[in-house]
Amino acid sequence: MENNNMSTSRNQAEFDVIVLGGSYAGLSAAMQLARARRSVLVIDAGRRRNRFARLSHGFLTQDGSEAAAIAAQGRAQLQAYPNVAWASDTATAATGGGEHFDVTLSDGGSISGRRLVLAMGVTDTLPRVDGLAERWGRSVFHCPYCHGYELDEGDIGVLATGEVSMHHALMLPDWGRVTFLLNESFDPDDSQREALARRGVTVEATPVARIDGEADVVLRDGRRMSMTGLFVAPRTSVSGAIARQLGCATEAGPMGEFVATDAMKATSVPGVFSCGDMARAAGNVALAVADGAMAGVAAHRSLIAELNHAV
Ligand code: FAD
Ligand code: MG
Questions:
Q1: Of all protein residues, whose CA lies closest to atom 43 belonging to ligand 1?
Q2: Which residue in 19, 131, 198, 271 is deepest, having the highest Cβ count within 10 Å?
Q3: What is the residue range of 32's domain?
Q4: Mean pLDDT of successive 10-residue segments in the chain (311 residues)?
Q5: Would you state the pLDDT for residue 2?
Q6: 277 domain-assigned
């Protein structure tokens, strides 16, 4: 546990807010609470979703910056506030509701807070194709807005994982020449094939044996297609069991379930807010930062009882 002064330490009886997850969304939530002079504890296991990619694109003022550097700068600016405590740790459980929550850390110790902000992100599951996982974030991506531009309108493979990949295949011609690799995972119907043809997409039905080189697709019949990059829609799942333990309602998204929230980023459980990738159908750094700001403000306002009764 690192803290900035003696007034906010792990041993504090109860934090106003405990933020679970200290990446873009959690940092942004904690920033609003820090600036509201509330006591905040951030618990972070240090495994950002984009840790496989060196550079991050599309976040205003930080386009092309190192993904780790954006998070590190955010953390340094947050930790300049004396009312912020930081635990580099994994939260293993959370219980409670309304006005009081207990969060368990990996050493079995427990910390209390009046509100929780869940910002633990999602976990990606890639299809099992030899050579794919090693290239995730380097030449294999899921978000064209994040990594499409750098492919310089080259040859792009879209590896199908299901219906959601149709969307990918129809979008990606704006970034290059697209081959849609069905890989026995998706079979477009006639109207879908017509739509793909209208977008100039080549459809390849032969299954993929492995990925090789930079982004070479080796098909089961031995053919090799050299790509500049590959896109694949992973299955996503809310990281950890804490949202489920607390009873937060979820919603189904095209890539996986996410925590349901209202416009203020409140979950179905009073006192629990959620933001970032774990609380939207699809996310990026800018959206995580925006959602985090909303969750932080909403958590703060919920601490002011008079505000809740004002209207
Ligand atoms: P995350 O960044 O995933 O952070 C969640 C944090 O919570 C982690 O630090 C994790 O360790 C912590 N945590 C989880 N469980 C616990 C627990 N139980 N206890 C304590 N801590 C916990 N977006 C862009 O805008 N531009 C890009 O260029 C870009 N490139 C990407 C490249 C790749 C390969 C991938 C996979 C994603 C990319 N993204 C990009 C998307 C971006 O990574 C996410 O949208 C963003 O990280 C979401 O932020 P977050 O704070 O919600 O979650
Ligand atoms: Mg307690």
A1: 50
A2: 19
A3: 15-123+235-310
A4: 50 90 98 98 98 97 97 98 97 95 95 98 97 98 96 96 96 98 97 98 98 97 98 96 97 96 97 98 97 98 84 50
A5: 54
A6: yes
User: Of 18, 31, 49, which is best to mutate to test ligand 1, by the most ligand atoms within 8 angstroms of its C-beta?
Assistant: 49
pLDDT for the residue 307: 83
Residue 193 shares a structural domain with residue 272: no
Q: What is the 262 CA–ligand 2 centroid distance (Å)?
A: 27
Q: Which residue has the tokens 């996986």?
A: 256
Residue 289 lies in a domain: yes
Q: pTM score, two decimals?
A: 0.95
Q: Are 284 and 143 in contact (CB under 8 A)?
A: yes
Binding-site residues, ligand 1, Cβ < 6 A: 20-26, 43-50, 52-53, 56-59, 90-91, 119-121, 124, 136-137, 143, 146, 239-240, 276-277, 283-286, 288
User: Which of 167, 197, 232 represents a domain boundary (last residue)?
Assistant: 232
Report CA(48)–ligand 1 centroid distance (Å): 4
